[in-house]
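Quiz preparation item.
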């Protein structure tokens, strides 16, 4: 809303304070500053507030607002006096106001840093989290205006308001004065206030998705009068799925007095329906959608699924329509799936909702599926159905103008019916939030992601996303850091999802292979090695093996404490007449199920070739199976923990055979990044059960146990089964590590001068003529990095041979002579670096060669630097990406690493574990650990350097990029030979402000 001339001209209307928020019950509302145009809205709002609430606000009976009150409450300068309102349908449902005060409690201006705050919420909307949302936003506004504390007077009987202040997480003080409670809140965010804010965000957003997936009634708007068409198809699918709620067909073209359509009530508008509709599926042309949305909003619909196309995917005109659609829906408190959506499905027995274009409802299962593409959604539904897998929920978000993958993660995190979340994403609207939510969700259940449109410039039409400069390889690394299982294709996503949903997590990378084909076993063995697993030699049962032989061999492998998973390979077996029998796969499936039911809790996968009915028979037990425990106990420890960790209800509770004593690991070599955990000597505790399991004291009653063995995933190729198992191994390792978070060493605090660095940064930015910031000189960068204990070896300019000799004499021989011209920097391959210069004669000769080869000194900008101890040249970088946040990167120096993209990445702030993993996760990591007989380098010093740089960019977001190149890591210590630093005003951090819905 625009300010009027009556408002103070030097304080413009702060439109950046406007925000859409999700309330506690899942509905949405808008928060915005109050303006002078709101007088009538304020009076109307106040009239709907009860006398009791008015008394609590004004400490006396106050039946109506005077003209002076209305003027005072609608005229603000947006600095010392600010008022915010929460609106639904354009009408106020709650307000908050602060007035800056001095030490005596009188009106004041800056530099006074305290303000008096007061709330008022309409009684009909109390309990929805309105005041809590207002507190977050008014606190952010106050901090922006230099206010550090809120003071509030609350009557002792006003328990709801006292609870709002108490539960906000801010540091507070309270006292009882003159019959009221005096509260003082420090507005600086704390870990507790941030945790409270994110907890409320999670519950509210999860509830908003739950309202969409479990409505009590559904209206299909745009249902055709004749068979066919989008609306009629959705109605047919709703009825075919056995939806348990009430269904209505709506079309303004229906004849007056039309009673039913396909057996459900038919109406010309929602106004004709006698009760409130929870969910509306809109299937009308785009130009009629606004009318349908208004009808829904005016009649209390809670959420929309917009199947209509013609929005941002259709060009400039559609791009203008899409945000307007979102604004219109949110103004009524509704959330949207779509537009251009394929629909939603919920297979819960109490709901049985198929409000989609999918012709057949999937079976009930434990997999949640989210896609941003209708076509991919169809393929995934078909693939999962064909392989016997069931779903708990499905959302196809289309252009994802509102509900996104982040919302689906919020829902999946606490959904007891979902064990695995699968997401096909073509864009990330809020990458920082996605990473945070994915990490939290992955800590309790697997998250498998396929990212389409991976290359820059290929964002799909209709998906407005923040600009990001980081390559897809970095995005993948950051997802891995968050525990996300990132795969390349939807086929791989289904393969991994089947294994994770139906099998326990592996305790390590040791794999037993058994089957009736030696060749297929060898293919599986090779695939395991390629994926970093540790396979045992395949057990060949021969082609004469019977189903009973398979059962006996599988039972023996499951009981063997030296393996963590089993892959069964099968081809048609030879019958008594000597001929191959494709036979009924049910026979072999039954044998394998019986072995699994009586064995230890280890994942089992089957690779089969042309055995009819086997995959279907192996999957037959999945539709009613209870969730399997996510136990990742190493085999060697399984006996000791058998009494404390749950065993799959489909497996025997007999302890596994103890493993042989572990062989000591080689001390120098790093673990390969894909190799999984070291199973013989686990250093972290086993992963416990996730939410909803019997061992979770907060989960409520445990689900009813399955009466038969769980589903065993089957694959038509060895490579696919092994790749899925390898992803499960890496995920299980991440879960073990996530159970004991890494730390930032305390010793850093004693060697870091944070205030000194802040002063340097402030001074440098003050002299920057460009508001985009400036690069630091070599000496400035050295000084700043030195404040964080990062020593950069000095260089001295050498504009001529005499200056070079003087510099070498000062530094001491041997020295290096290097060019620093941008086109030659760090390009030893072009001859711009001369090393190990031992004396003046050699230096003069090298100087001449350099200038003769590459150009004049004024062009080359040569410098002299003392030689560093020999070691491995590496590169350490940190940069701020507007979308993803601060990223720490590491790799070896040189063209080969750049050419192959062999660089590892982690989000900042990095922990000691992140730093250790960072240097071990590049493919060339063995070079650091004594490859081919070389001396191992000082990786501890390298990890400390990474932690110091991470701390610098985390403490000072104005440091937008740092490159340390090269960093020579020797057997003892390291040397930073070059450093470049760029400062700029820090980018906005939307993830640290008050919760708000994104505007795509």
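Solution:
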């Amino acid at each position: 809303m625009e300010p009027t001339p009556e408002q103070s001209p030097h304080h413009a209307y702060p439109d950046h304070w406007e925000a859409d928020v999700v309330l506690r019950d899942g509905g949405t509302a808008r928060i915005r500053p109050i303006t002078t145009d709101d007088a009538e809205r304020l009076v109307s709002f106040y009239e709907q507030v009860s006398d009791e609430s008015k008394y609590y606000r004004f400490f006396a009976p106050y039946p109506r607002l005077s003209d002076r009150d209305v003027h005072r409450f609608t005229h603000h300068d947006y600095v010392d006096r600010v008022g915010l309102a929460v609106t639904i349908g354009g009408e106020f449902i709650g307000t908050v106001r602060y007035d800056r005060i001095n030490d005596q409690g009188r009106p004041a201006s800056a530099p006074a840093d305290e303000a008096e705050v007061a709330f008022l919420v309409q009684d009909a909307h109390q309990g929805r989290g309105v005041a809590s949302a207002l507190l977050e936003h008014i606190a952010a506004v106050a901090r922006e205006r230099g206010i550090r504390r809120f003071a509030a007077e609350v009557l002792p009987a006003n328990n709801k308001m006292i609870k709002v202040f108490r539960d906000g997480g801010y540091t507070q003080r309270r006292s009882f004065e003159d019959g009221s409670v005096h509260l003082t809140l420090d507005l600086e965010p704390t870990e507790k206030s941030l945790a409270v804010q994110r907890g409320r965000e999670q519950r509210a957003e999860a509830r908003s998705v739950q309202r969409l997936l479990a409505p009590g009634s559904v209206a299909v708007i745009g249902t055709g009068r004749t068979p066919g068409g989008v609306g009629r198809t959705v109605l047919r699918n709703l009825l075919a799925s056995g939806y348990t709620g009430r269904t209505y067909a709506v079309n303004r073209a229906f004849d007056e007095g039309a009673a039913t359509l396909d057996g459900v009530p038919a109406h010309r508008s929602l106004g004709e329906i006698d009760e409130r509709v929870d969910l509306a599926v809109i299937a009308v042309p785009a130009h009629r959608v606004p009318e349908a949305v208004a009808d829904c909003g005016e009649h209390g619909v809670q959420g929309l699924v917009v199947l209509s196309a013609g929005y941002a995917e259709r060009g400039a005109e559609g791009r203008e329509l899409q945000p307007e659609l979102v604004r219109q829906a949110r103004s009524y408190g509704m959330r949207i799936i779509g537009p251009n959506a394929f629909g939603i499905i919920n297979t819960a027995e109490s709901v049985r909702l198929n409000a989609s274009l999918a012709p057949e409802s999937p079976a009930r299962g434990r997999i949640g599926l989210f896609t941003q593409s209708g076509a991919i959604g169809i393929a995934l539904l078909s693939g999962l159905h064909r392989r016997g897998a069931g779903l708990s929920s499905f959302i196809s978000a289309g252009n994802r103008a509102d509900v996104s993958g982040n919302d689906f993660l919020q829902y999946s995190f606490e959904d007891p019916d979902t064990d695995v979340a699968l997401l096909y994403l073509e864009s990330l609207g809020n990458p920082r939030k996605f990473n945070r939510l994915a990490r939290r969700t992955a800590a309790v259940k697997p998250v498998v992601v396929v990212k389409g449109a991976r290359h820059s410039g290929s964002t799909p039409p209709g998906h407005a996303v923040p600009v990001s400069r980081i390559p897809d390889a970095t995005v993948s690394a950051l997802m891995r850091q968050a525990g996300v299982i990132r795969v390349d294709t939807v086929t791989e996503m289904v393969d991994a999802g089947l294994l994770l949903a139906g099998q326990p997590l592996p305790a390590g990378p040791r794999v037993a292979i058994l089957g009736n084909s030696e060749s297929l076993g060898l293919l599986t063995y090779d695939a395991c090695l390629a994926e970093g697993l540790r396979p045992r030699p395949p057990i060949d049962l021969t082609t004469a093996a019977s189903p009973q032989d398979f059962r006996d061999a599988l039972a023996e492998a499951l009981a063997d404490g030296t393996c963590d998973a089993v892959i069964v390979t099968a081809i048609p077996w030879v019958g008594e007449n000597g001929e191959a029998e494709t036979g009924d796969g049910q026979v072999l499936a039954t044998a394998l199920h019986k072995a699994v039911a009586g064995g230890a809790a280890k994942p089992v996968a089957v690779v089969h070739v042309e055995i009819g009915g086997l995959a279907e028979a192996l999957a037959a037990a999945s539709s009613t199976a209870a969730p399997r425990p996510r136990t990742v106990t190493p085999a060697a420890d399984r006996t000791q923990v058998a009494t404390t960790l749950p065993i799959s209800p489909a497996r025997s509770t007999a302890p596994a055979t103890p493993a042989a004593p572990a062989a000591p690991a080689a001390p120098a070599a790093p673990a390969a990044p894909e190799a999984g955990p070291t199973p013989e000597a686990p250093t972290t505790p086993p992963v416990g059960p996730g939410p909803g399991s019997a061992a979770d004291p907060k989960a409520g009653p445990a689900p009813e146990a399955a009466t038969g063995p769980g589903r065993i995933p089957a694959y038509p190729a060895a490579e696919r089964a092994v790749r899925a198992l390898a992803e499960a191994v890496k995920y299980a390792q991440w879960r073990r590590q996530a159970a004991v978070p890494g730390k930032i060493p305390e010793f850093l605090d004693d060697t870091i001068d944070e205030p000194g660095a802040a002063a340097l940064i402030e001074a440098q930015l003050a002299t920057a003529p460009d508001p985009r910031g400036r690069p630091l000189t070599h000496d400035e960068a050295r000084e700043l990095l030195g404040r964080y204990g990062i020593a950069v070896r000095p260089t001295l300019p050498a504009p001529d041979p005499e200056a070079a000799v003087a510099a070498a004499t000062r530094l001491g021989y041997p020295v290096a002579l290097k060019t620093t011209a941008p086109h030659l920097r760090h390009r030893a391959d072009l001859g711009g670096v001369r090393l190990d210069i031992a004396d003046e004669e050699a230096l003069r000769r090298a100087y001449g060669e350099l200038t003769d080869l590459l150009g004049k000194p004024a062009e080359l900008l040569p410098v002299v630097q003392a030689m560093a101890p020999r070691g491995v040249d590496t590169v350490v970088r940190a940069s701020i990406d507007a979308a993803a946040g601060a990223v720490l990167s590491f790799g070896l120096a040189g063209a080969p690493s750049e050419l192959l993209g062999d660089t590892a990445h982690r989000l900042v702030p990095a922990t000691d574990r992140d730093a250790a993993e960072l240097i071990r996760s590049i493919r060339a990591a063995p070079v650091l650990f004594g490859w081919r007989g070389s001396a191992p380098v000082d990786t501890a010093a390298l990890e400390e350097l990474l932690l110091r740089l991470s701390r610098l960019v985390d403490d000072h977001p104005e440091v937008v990029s740092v490159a340390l190149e090269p960093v020579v890591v020797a057997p003892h210590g390291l040397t930073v030979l070059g450093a470049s630093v760029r400062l700029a005003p820090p980018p906005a951090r939307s993830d640290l402000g008050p919760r708000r819905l994104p505007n795509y």
